[in-house]
Amino acid sequence: MMQLEPMFQPSWPVHSYFDSPLDQYGQNIDFFTSEEDHEFYSANVMNGLDDVCRWLCDDGDDVQKLEEISSDSYEWSPSISKTSSDACAYIPYVKPPCMVDDLMEIDSQTGIENLLTAHAEAVCSGHTELAKVIQKHVCQLASPVGPVLERLALNLFQCDENQEKDYIVQESLRNFKTAFRAFYEIFPYGRFAHFTANSTILESIPTHATSIHIVDFDLCEGSQWPPVIEAIARINKTLIITSIKLDQDQDSKFEQTRWQLCNFARGFGLNLKVQEMGMSQMVKTMDESKLVSEFLVFNCMVSLPHMGRTRKTTQVMEFLNIAKWALAKNEGIITFGDGEGERTNDTDFPSFFNKNLVHYKALYESMEWGFPSYLNEGRMAIETLFVWPFVNSNSWFQKWEEGRGKPGFQKDIGLKGVQLSKENLNEQRELVNEGETQYGIEIGESRNEFVLKWKETPLMRVSAWM
């Protein structure tokens, strides 16, 4: 197997390679509020994202100015590498907030939490009208600028009372490139998953393999692959990336991503081939072709926050079963990243609901902790774009019904786990600044899995199999 050094630089660059349009939302959004409300939210969201963009500047002098301005409120810590000279490597972490002294606010939070539990129980028992009444009351209590639990509760339901949300989405979409870059660079979620998977892939490539074929379950904008493209170019091997076509409307986005990846590869003298096909077509192609000296990589990233969308469990399981079938007769590896923390086969919906609530509450808290208070409007826009798609009571119920009584994804793989390297672990700990922040990296029982945690709550997992 190949060694990571010097083929792949472990200190992950903080910038994302590509920008991406968000395909989660349509343009036909209903408007209910007044023109004055629209102007207020539009101005605040756009100004907030502009502030975020200035915050993520490349000029060291600007970073120094921000450090001087915020020295009383923030601790500046390297988010990626303590030795990096890149100005964007230094991200201000907000000191943990003090305990809330206002007893009325505490009572309000407790009340919302009890209402959410009651809502889950009503849905589970089939009391639809009661669930609607509880939902409406929660919407009246929650605020998009309130504490974490209020914002989370507001996103759970599609309410007429939540008029501001449509405007926040609309205005955030106009500044999506800034929001995507900010989200990917400020928070460790995407970089944790991508670096763990990429490092493991590159470490696992056998020396006799002349070609690497990556089959990507959800290519999105392709931001995972530039470091791998660069590394493969250095060792003079050929590379093919196959994107699985999951939706009918992927064509235009895929063409843009293919052009970006191929253009990037040409800069390193690599003649990259990027193709798209459905899962049935992929099976047929692999069954008919002889994969001589080709190393297969099946990469599956699901529900990572920066992706802004989730996928059906049935699609994920079909992909993993195909990967298992292909690796039974070919040399290769499976890398799997799951942004939903810990998947369990709960027999009752309230338990499933509460576990999701704990997970996304931790995600919201980690975002709030790592974001300066003067950028609240920008944070609100980022939450709406990248967390909202995962927080929905109806989709939680559907997912629970779909997975009830079934084992988690990883329990179904049935292959040998690939032990993740110590170098990979050290880089991840440096990424999250473990010991100085509330983030932590945990090693799975089989040592083929890394878990990114906020305090004691798992945020996401990445594992490898072969």
Describe the structure in brief.
This protein is of the alpha/beta class. It has 17 helices and ten strands.
Verbal overview:
- This protein is α/β, with parallel strands linked by helices and 466 residues long.
- It is 48% helix and 14% strand.
- It is built from 17 helices and 10 strands.
- The protein has helices at 35-55, 60-69, 103-124, 128-141, 148-156, 163-174, 176-186, 189-204, 226-234, 251-266, 279-288, 313-327, 349-369, 376-386, 393-403, 409-413, 422-431, and strands at residues 74-78, 90-94, 211-216, 238-244, 273-277, 294-302, 332-338, 439-443, 449-454, 457-465.
- It has an 8-stranded mixed β-sheet with strand order 5-4-3-6-7-10-9-8, sandwiched between helices. It has a two-stranded antiparallel sheet with strand order 1-2.
- Helix 1 (35-55) packs across helix 6.
- The chain is globular and about 65 Å long.
- The chain starts with 34 loop residues before the first helix and ends with a strand.
- Mean pLDDT is 76; it is low at 2-42 and 58-106.
